[in-house]
Request: fold
Amino acid sequence: MRTLLYSLVSAMVLAAAVPAFAKDKLTVYTYESFTADWGPGPVVKKEFEAECGCDVEFVSVADGVALLNRVKLEGGSTKADIVLGLDTNLTAEAKATGLFSPHGAVADAKVPGGWSDDTFVPFDYGYFAVVYDTEKLKTPPKSLKELVEGSADEKIVIQDPRTSTPGLGLLLWVKSVYGDKAPEAWAKLKAKVLTVTPGWSEAYGLFTKGEAPMVLSYTTSPAYHMVAENTQRYQAASFEEGEYLQIEVAGITTSGAKNPLAEKFMAFMTGPKFQDAIPETNWMFPAGKTDKPLNPAFDKLVKPTKTLLFSADEVAANRKAWVDEWLSVMSK
Amino acid sequence: MRLASDPRVTAGITALAAVALLIGGAFTGLLFEGAHDLSGAWAALDPYLLRVVRFTLWQAALSTLLSVGPALLVARALSRHPRFFGRGFILQLFALPLALPAIVAALGILALYGRAGYFSGLLSAVGGQGWPGIYGLSGILVAHVFFNLPLSSRLFLEALQTIPADQWRLASQLGMGPRPAFRLIEWPMLRAALPGIAGLVFMLCITSFTIVLTLGGGPAATTLEVGIYQALRFDFDPARAVALTLLQVALTCLVMLCLTRLGANTTGDANLPVAPRRYLSVGAGETILNIVLIALALLFVAGPMAATLAAGLGADLGRLAGEATVRQATLTSAGLAFVSALLSVLLSLSLTIARRALALNRRAGPRSLLEHAADTGAGLVLVVPPIVIGAGWFLLLRHAGDVFAIAPIMVVTVNAVMAMPFAIRAIRPAYDAASERHERLCALLGIAGWARFRLVDWPSLRRPLATGFAFAMALSLGDLGVIALFGSDSVQTLPYLLLARMGSYRTEDAAGLALLLGLVCLALVLAADWLGRGEKA
Amino acid sequence: MPIGVTNGAASGAEVRLDKVSFSYGEAPLFFDVDFAASKITAIMGPSGSGKSTLLNLVAGFEAPQAGRVLIGGVDVGAALPSARPVSMVFQENNLFAHLSVEQNVGLGRSPSLRLTGDDRADISEAIARTGLAGKEKRLPRELSGGERQRVALARVLVRDRPVLLLDEPFASLGPALRDDMLDLVAGVHGERGMTVLFVTHQPQDARRIGQNVVFLDKGAVAAAGTADDFFAGAGPEAFRRYIGAGAGDPVSRDIARKRT
Reply:
């Protein structure tokens, strides 16, 4: 009982306490799986602290969207120096808040299609992909078109673009392939959709429970199963039309611009010490120089023949209309 | 009687004020932020919204019907057999579904009835083709019944237990068979409890979110709650969130109004219970029927839980238990749930006694607004999504310093208030019955305030308070609401950790954590039960 | 401190309803009546004539719409039931089911059961006086109906207020038991001399211990007088009808009237 109360009280006190160390400190807001024990956070913290002789404090929230919301909520008084974990679909909105400061040095980011943005710097990337269960599906679709027009018996679980990032990714993927014909494509695909979950976790959970042979996920998902679970069972399908790209970025806040450590961290982020940790902790591709070779499992992953991506501004301008379009087809 | 100055009414007003402050503060925060751009609020009112409203109401109404109807029978069966092996365990088990995060329950249900579920082979054989799973309205209904059938059964049972023992004695003396006994004794009591319980279930279903999306099969199955979540989380449009929330509250009010017409007033146990509690002789035929009813309900509820248990046992429990984060989250969850439940029961008790005092005061006149508020009004908080409250308060307080420092307080308060309708359902029948019996005597002897609670109310409220406490605790244990929107390092609860693991491919860990969550809940429910067991009351 | 309470009161207080009007639902009631101090007054009348309401007005469970309730000359209109110099015994629910005999009686002394040694002595004495010695620890459900009402009377003794209201407390008891209880009331009255207002349907109850009779009809006092006069046939026609033909016959007056 006493420990229970103690932990409760300490949880409340901890929340309020601000460590008053004299050492220079860098505060990084990021998402939860980044700072998890198995995520890149612990390695990144150790390496950067050794390099800068400072303290790194991670503050984590559930995901990228929550991250942006938290920064919006805190506004100019945010404690964050760096916000790490937004994706390109959120950057336009993030910039519009005026809470981010352009970075000085252009970091040499390596992402497909190149990178030029004065505010945000990529730290990893991945492709959305249809992941399938080889035990249930012998002949996976070879293109988005095959998926759309294939038999309605082979079900897929997708996410809702209103509430989830991958869901929005698929919407943009279909849009970039089908353009104005996207509603027709969705009308056909609808028959194959087992259900539309609010987030990635629910969809992937249904998929691994065997409810559907396909799920919308990432090309890198099989790498996790190969490396961590030593199984080849789950594979990504390669689509002729190409795969839609997701780039994860970090930016310096206006208050962080006053902290010299922030610039240093951004440079560190695209360097090998950070990037080496990414593939097998965040299960994404590194967006900068690495020292270590990629785990061979990554070589077995689907390599997109073509990279599909709308610019952040295009997404920001059209998202609502496209989601409404999707909604009107899918809710019939 | 001069009850206006009754401290009970004051207590109720205080509780109401606290609730109003919580909701009002949140709305103020949101409107303050969203006032400069109300376009979102107007834009929300489109034809799609009409479809959403229709579906929201339809699924909630059906879910309520399918949960409450069978629950009436199950509760009655349980009350007819007050003593059999495992009865207590069934009742404790019935408190558990509330503690399970929606996705865990959904996966548990799919483990049985899904396309790859245990029953899919059987169901395919029966249907002659591949079992399509339960996606769509059927899936939503199964999941909602899973959550709400056990809940309503327990609450109905609570109401049935306030039937005076003398009435039973009289019934068996008059040779009343089960059917007239139901019609003349049990039904009036159940009917009195019906609007409250049905309203509660309806509110839980109208705000359903994860279940509806995950099992609904597509965006045709969307609730208003999805729109609210989307408005706050993705579009950050506070005005629209408030507009949709108000719509949700208005719709709920309408339904509650209709439900109250179904009800009847109860007189409760007006006389001293002199007969011993063992009086019933139930015929063999009825016994068999009751056994079947209880067994069916048990199978239906225990099935998905067993699947959750089985999945959890597959996880590396030893390693999980050894993780500092897991241990910390377990303590945080248990602590928060405990404090929330305590606060919730306190607030509920205040409202219950105030409502009773007001009802006594007015005699035959029409009910005052205050009495309405103390009665069903407070229940409406359930349809104000926790994320709305959380977001509103964060917006309101953001200039007052580090708002995330108040996250734990936010979680405790919101969970406490959300659990109030459950606690009130559990407490009210017993309090009203006790009051019916003791009111005049207390007035005559001047027993009031703390002395009254200690000597008169506590003995008869002990058990229902424990029930309310258990439900409140289960509810807060499984809640993610306030945290989900912004997250907070300081409040890493078990459900939060569970979803985080699920979100990082660690489904086995998640299953293990679900098991742990269930066990923590069971432990807390057992503790509450133990506390509630008076000497021989 | 409750008003008008005189601890160890050797005598009762006059109860006066001064042009009290009250309505519960449709039927209006009007009472303008005195109850003599230290007397036992039987209140009789047909069902619905307002007997219980009259007691509730005196006890403070109901508030008059007009008029005053005076006890010992003091207007008690503003006082809570517990603050009035009144004890009351109901037909049912006089006891808390989960509290022992001792505790139930003790509540008459302290509503929070904070009892001194003297209090405990008084409680034991009251329990003994009502014939319950040895049953202190019992719960109400372990007692007979008569015993339960004895506990209520024991509490009246411990409370020691100048007015005692009895709302058909013995109606559900058998004749012999009822007589015993009436004798107990009469005995207690002899010792303490409180004013007793006693609602009953039974003429023989009224004759057994009643000194005065107030007869209510249609929500008002139809007649009042001494019990002797009433039962000698001097009561109003309505009273004679109420107790039935022949009740006023002198022969039936031979029922012993015990007074202790």
Summary: Residues 28 and 58 of chain A are 5 Å apart (CA to CA). The radius of gyration of chain A is 21 Å. Chain A has a mean pLDDT of 87.
